[in-house]
Prior knowledge:
The structure holds two protein chains of two kinds. Chain A is mainly α. Chain A has 13 helices and three strands, in the order αβαββααααααααααα. In chain A, strands 2-3 form a two-stranded antiparallel sheet. The N and C termini of chain A lie far apart (49 Å). In chain A, 47% of the residues are buried. Chain B is α+β, with helices and mostly antiparallel strands. Chain B contains 15 helices and 16 strands. In chain B, a hairpin with a 6-residue loop joins strand 4 (162-168) and strand 5. The longest helix of chain B has 17 residues, at 6-22. The interface between A and B is large, with 67 and 80 residues. Strand 1 of chain A pairs parallel with strand 11 of chain B.
Amino acid sequence: MMVRTRTFCLALALTAAAPFASAQVVTDTPARAPDPTPAPESDALEAPALPEPPPALRARVAALTRVAERTEECYSYHGERVEHQPDPRCAQWYGALVRGGEAAAYAIGEVLNRPNIEDSTARVHGNMGSEQRGPRLVQILVATRSRAAPAFLLSYLAVDAVSEDGFDTTDEEVLRQLPRVAGYDAHPVAPWERGVFDQPEARREVARHWLRWWRSHQDEAPAERAASGESLAVADLTHPDPAVRFAAMQRLVAVPARRAAVADATRALLADDNLPARAATHITRWARRNRLPLPPSAAPTTLARR
Amino acid sequence: MRALSPSLVVLLAVVLGAVTAFGRGDTVRVGALFSHGARPVRVGRLPPGVGDGTAAACASCHAEIAREWRESQHASSWRDEVFQAAYDVEPMQFCRSCHAPLAPAGRHPDARAAEEGVSCTVCHVRDGHVLGPGRRPPAAGAHTSDPMVAMRTSAFCEGCHQFNFRGDSGPRGEVYATDEPMQDTHAEWAMSASAARGEHCQGCHMPTVTSADGRTHRSHRFPGGGDRALLSSAVRVEASARREGGVTVARVAVHPDRIGHSFPTGDLFRRAELRVWIDGDEAHAQTVAMAREFRPVLERDPHGRPLFVRREARDTRVAPPGVGVVTPIELRFHSAPATRLRWRLDHLLMPTPLAASQGFGDPRVRTTIAEGLVDLPGAPP
């Protein structure tokens, strides 16, 4: 049930395992410094309480929790079982969670918030591809559209922000999915800026931000949050910071009434003389994938005179 | 029947003449020649004058070009040990279509298709015609050549060097092409300053060389990722260093130079590694990887079924020339005061752990393309 590129998956797994297998330090380029301002006492990294499942769902949640636990078995030293040693159970487990609705949200939320979700497979056993388990579970959790999803994600984020663990694929997926549940990304970190999260203080700052957002908006209905998020994103389409502008473009590209504005913003952003090269390539590919018209200069031209 | 007006007759004559002069080549769409890996190449009937269509047959007249081709990665496209190691893990038609394009669909390449790789007929022969970049009068007894202007453009290379991931989505393994580029070289070129200037792949990868008889031709050695000189000219490294309190800070910018796409490009495993260390203390070197990174994303297949597909999460490679502003990399060293720093830029066919898992040592996959030394301001010479 997944893209059938086993070599690629093996490489992904091995790339992820590289830091454990080799002593060399591999870093990325931090593009933004963390905010040095100390947080006020009231802005502590206090994790929201984990939501309890409604009584009617408890049996189903318990069953799906066991399924979510078993996804750990989908990775071996030789790579993903789904692709390297086709094992239909793995596809079935993920499939059951995708179909699990509200109960799956509680099941995944509980598993996600156990200590060291990734340690259990990746670091202890060195199983290849296991770094993909957390991101997959996070995405399924969000896809359930459960109202419990934000609390599970924020709880994970708050605990992780004060841990000694480095920034990993699950952390990144949580940050990528939070704007979806919030309806708006008020603290965008663009893909080309990911290196900033190598700094623990930057991780704590982004966690503080999202916890503040939760305290302000937790009583709103998702539709209400989505509507206000759309308005804010429209305003951000002309924001001077490319990361903010790109977050707004991503938020609005699937809204038919906003596509023209997104196309204009894309062209304007790509024409910005100060746009970092990595941002330019990322945005160009994103625009192509979303079938947005690119500037004419990006089209192949005729033969040069040589 | 109404008589044709003289002007219409003239117009028809001009059109007919143009079509005749243009020849067969330009009536073949480039898109019809290659399929981005979807199926093997369909050469069709061999034209007279090309023997059995093997590279050896072509070499009987085109000896110099054949010699160049034998040294190329096109010639070893199937035999290449790095490709073979990957193919062992995942033997797909998708791979065979480009690496052994003369093998019939659904079949393992026979000895001839394996030996030929991407040979003369793959690019130059279709349906009884020899296609060339221009018209040349044939020597006595040789074949004619139909001009195909597209052969001089990047569009000709796109059919094999630009393609998307394949996905499968069910128990019967239905295969479909996703919209995520697995190799994106042509699109990288299309966004580059090289494309805007009208420069095409052939400019660097088929340079003009002088033949033994003094005439010039386009090299068929196809220098690329295996050519150290070409790799070295692709990027330019600017490095400086300074002290901030007790910390030594290296600032390194890697600029695209003589290149028309991202660096590195091609296969998704290709990467560059910039390694920086305080002179005499390589054990504490810091390495910056420049590569594409992917992640699984929950989406729906063409039938509406949920599945995880690969999406690019990040691309930290050197962007094509003319695309955005290069952001320098800063690395901080907290060790003892340094007098100078060393740096090295390597091109890798794949990450070292992956290479090891396939039985390749680091030297097989790593090429050092540039290195340098940076004195810290105020340090004794």
